[in-house]
């Protein structure tokens, strides 16, 4: 009896031990699952039950300075077909019969293409119009899904294509304003989680959490669509007339630095944009801010401004022009027309665009003071206008390696120095606005869901005194309005000022003809820079670029409603 | 005899009790039935409402699409090309061939201060009170359209 009890106790204890170990194991596992790995399993369960959907935010519009839209958003639809739904012949034929006419495709070919799709849904059409998309949703053919896509719509057609840029399929800005202001335009996409059933459909009254999308803001540019249209039309015509390879025209408000119009060629048209064409990539950059050129004789206004600001010369100061200037290193510099003009005033240097006169003035300035003024006018640094890929230009000063004393002479008339058209027009604006170097800007205002952000004019620094500015503006006016000869930049009825430039290259026959001018002379409302690259007819800025300034200035003055300087007086009235 | 009368008494008591139990059971069954029916009604109502919600969401999306289409239409109506077309075809205007400016001895208002008729001026500038600053671009644009 005692032995039996002992055996029973042993077995009992073994059983208890097994139970305890098993229970302990289960409890340990429960602790691991429910406490230690709690978050992991919750996430797994949520992932199983909840479906995540990203809701795209409608992209904001890009508008001109007066509120006219240049780019807006419209809904288009991508059409997908589920190949599994079209395995059945009857369903496939019915679906194809409904779908094909709307997509302009053959029903048989549509069924064949759908069935050939091995994985995922078949993309039957991309970016179909809203009308077709809505019809498809109402028809709801079996197995056909429509996905809403935001597409860009350009009410002004190809106007300012290069400036506006474009977006990719993922709605992200890739070039131009679309890229530089992508954060403002794009808004914040919403992410919504909802409980789903086994088929992936939302469960009635199931959980729905997340944030709705925040629409993108509208970006108001400083561009005026009318002036932009004028500029583009005239630039394209000039390039064709001159058989040139390209060019740029910029119109700026000198008092604020607002860019009223900006066009560069070669470029692309939004209507002909093909992102898969590698040759188009070179057309994407905005050459007026990314590419540099030697400004040529336009630079003489900077040289003169420096000397006048320092009190070294006045417009009436004279020098003797022998037609040649000797510079360090034994080099000789001639006037562009190989002329010698004898005793000439500083004003005459600008009027006749004499290289020898600019070299003489630069000699008085000296390298330190000359390059100090070059930098004061913003050359050698980006303007930070808000446009991507901006070049700082190339200014080699007497403090840099590889600088030669002869560089001072050539730089004084715009050779051996490289600037962007935007830098040149910004510097000219400083010369005629009272001497203040303004930061150019292209975006005036961003109106988002969180309010309006207005961009104000920014003064970078004072470049020259007000007095010097007045003197230079008058000298530039005397260049255009000189009585001795007709200047092609003259604007009928108004007084305007400006300076021509013809840039040459040491290693090629290429030439760049340019003109920078302003109007009206008494109170400049705008500055225009015209640059034509490699014209095949005349090579002179006065022949190629100045007439373009005249035509544009005339139309812009009328558009602004500015009273002409030459008006017939009528007595009487009130 | 006594045993017989006790059994009779018990069966009589049962006979008087059992109708009550049946009533209770019937009531409980009916209650369960009603509750079940309510559940079915509620579920079908939820499903119907869900379908209605989905349909309304669909309608909302379609309405948004239409709003975008209308915005594009407003933008197109105000485009330079359309303005030029209206000016030349409908109003018979032509670009000026020559300009002549005549000054009369009446003070010329500065270009910036010239007041345009209200219908040509953006809503905010026209002095219209309200949320002019917050209005969408297309609403401002509608005010600028002169060929409505």
List the helices and strands and how they pair.
The complex is a heterodimer of chains A (574) and B (148).
Chain A: H1 2-36, H2 38-49, E1 50-55, E2 62-63, E3 69-81, H3 89-103, H4 107-116, E4 122-128, H5 130-139, E5 144-153, H6 161-164, H7 176-180, H8 182-186, E6 190-195, E7 208-211, E8 218-221, H9 225-242, E9 246-252, E10 259-265, H10 287-290, H11 300-309, E11 318-321, E12 324-327, E13 331-334, E14 342-345, H12 346-352, H13 355-376, H14 405-412, H15 421-432, E15 436-438, E16 443-448, E17 451-454, E18 459-462, H16 466-480, E19 497-505, E20 508-519, E21 526-533, H17 541-544, H18 546-560, E22 568-570
Parallel strand pairs in A: 2-8
Antiparallel strand pairs in A: 1-6, 2-3, 3-4, 3-5, 6-7, 8-16, 9-10, 9-21, 11-14, 12-13, 15-18, 16-17, 19-20, 20-21
Helix pairs in contact in A: 3-4, 9-18, 11-13, 11-16, 12-16, 13-14
Chain B: H1 2-77, H2 80-90, E1 102-104, H3 137-144
């Amino acid at each position: 009896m005692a032995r039996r009890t002992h055996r029973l106790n042993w077995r009992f204890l073994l059983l208890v031990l097994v139970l305890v170990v098993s229970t302990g194991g289960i409890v340990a596992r429960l602790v691991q699952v429910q406490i230690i790995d709690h978050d992991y399993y919750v996430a797994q369960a949520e992932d199983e039950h909840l479906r995540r959907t990203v809701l795209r935010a409608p992209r904001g519009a890009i508008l001109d300075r007066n509120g006219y839209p240049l780019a807006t958003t419209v809904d288009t639809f991508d059409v997908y077909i589920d190949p599994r739904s079209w395995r059945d012949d009857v369903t496939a034929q019915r679906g194809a019969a409904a779908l094909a006419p709307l997509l302009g495709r053959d029903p048989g070919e549509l069924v064949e293409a759908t069935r050939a799709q091995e994985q995922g849904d078949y993309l039957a059409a991309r970016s179909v119009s809203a009308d077709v998309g809505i019809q498809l949703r109402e028809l709801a053919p079996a197995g056909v899904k429509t996905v809403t896509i935001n597409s860009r719509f350009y009410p002004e057609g190809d106007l300012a294509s290069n400036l506006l840029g474009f977006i990719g399929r993922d709605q992200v800005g890739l070039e131009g304003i679309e890229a530089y202001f992508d954060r403002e335009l794009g808004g914040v996409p919403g992410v919504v989680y909802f409980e789903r059933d086994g088929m992936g459909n939302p469960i009635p009254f199931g959980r729905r959490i997340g944030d709705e999308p925040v629409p993108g803001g509208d970006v108001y540019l400083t561009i005026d669509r009318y002036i932009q249209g004028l500029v583009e039309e005239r630039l394209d015509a000039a390039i064709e007339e001159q058989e040139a390879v390209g060019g740029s025209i910029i119109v700026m408000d000198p008092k604020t630095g607002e860019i009223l119009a900006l066009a560069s060629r070669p470029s692309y048209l939004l209507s002909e944009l093909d992102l898969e064409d590698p040759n188009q990539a070179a057309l994407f950059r905005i050459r007026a801010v990314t590419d540099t050129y030697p400004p040529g004789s336009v630079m003489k206004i900077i040289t003169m401004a420096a000397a006048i600001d320092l009190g070294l010369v006045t417009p009436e100061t004279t020098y003797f022009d022998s037609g040649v200037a000797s510079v360090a290193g034994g080099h000789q510099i001639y006037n562009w027309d190989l002329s010698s003009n004898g005793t000439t005033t500083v004003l005459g240097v600008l009027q006749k665009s004499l290289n020898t006169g600019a070299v003489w003035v630069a000699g008085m300035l000296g390298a330190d003071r000359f390059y100090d003024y070059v930098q004061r006018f913003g050359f050698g640094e980006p303007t930070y206008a808000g446009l991507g890929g901006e070049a700082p230009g190339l200014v080699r000063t007497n403090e840099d390696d590889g600088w030669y004393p002869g560089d001072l002479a050539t730089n004084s008339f715009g050779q051996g120095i490289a600037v962007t058209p935007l830098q040149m027009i910004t510097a000219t604006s400083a010369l005629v606005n009272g001497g203040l170097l303004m930061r150019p800007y292209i975006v005036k205002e961003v109106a988002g869901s969180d309010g309006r952000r207005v961009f104000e004019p920014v003064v970078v620094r004072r470049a020259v005194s007000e007095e010097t500015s007045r003197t230079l503006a008058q000298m530039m006016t005397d260049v255009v309005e000189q009585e001795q000869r007709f200047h092609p930049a003259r604007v009928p009825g108004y007084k305007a000022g400006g300076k021509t430039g013809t840039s040459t290259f040491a290693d090629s026959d290429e030439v760049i003809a340019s003109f920078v001018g302003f109007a009206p002379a008494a109170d400049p409302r705008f500055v225009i820079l015209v640059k034509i690259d490699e014209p095949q007819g005349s090579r002179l800025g006065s022949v190629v670029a100045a007439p373009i300034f005249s035509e544009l200035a005339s139309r812009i003055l009328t558009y602004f409603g500015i009273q002409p300087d030459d008006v017939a007086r009528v007595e009487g009235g009130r | 005899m006594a045993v017989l009368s006790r059994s009779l008494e018990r069966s009589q008591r049962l006979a008087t009790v059992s109708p009550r139990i049946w009533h209770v059971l019937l009531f409980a069954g009916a209650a369960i039935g009603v509750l079940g029916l309510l559940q079915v009604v509620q579920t079908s109502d939820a499903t119907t409402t869900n379908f209605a919600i989905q349909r309304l969401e669909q309608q909302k999306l379609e309405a948004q699409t239409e709003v975008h289409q209308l915005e594009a239409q407003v933008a197109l109506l105000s485009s330079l090309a359309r303005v030029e077309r209206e000016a030349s075809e409908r109003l018979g205007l032509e670009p000026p061939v020559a300009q002549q400016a005549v000054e009369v001895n009446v003070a010329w208002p500065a270009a910036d201060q010239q007041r345009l008729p209200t219908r040509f001026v953006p809503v905010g500038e026209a002095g219209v009170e309200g949320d002019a600053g917050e209005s969408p671009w297309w609403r401002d644009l509608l005010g600028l359209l002169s060929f409505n």
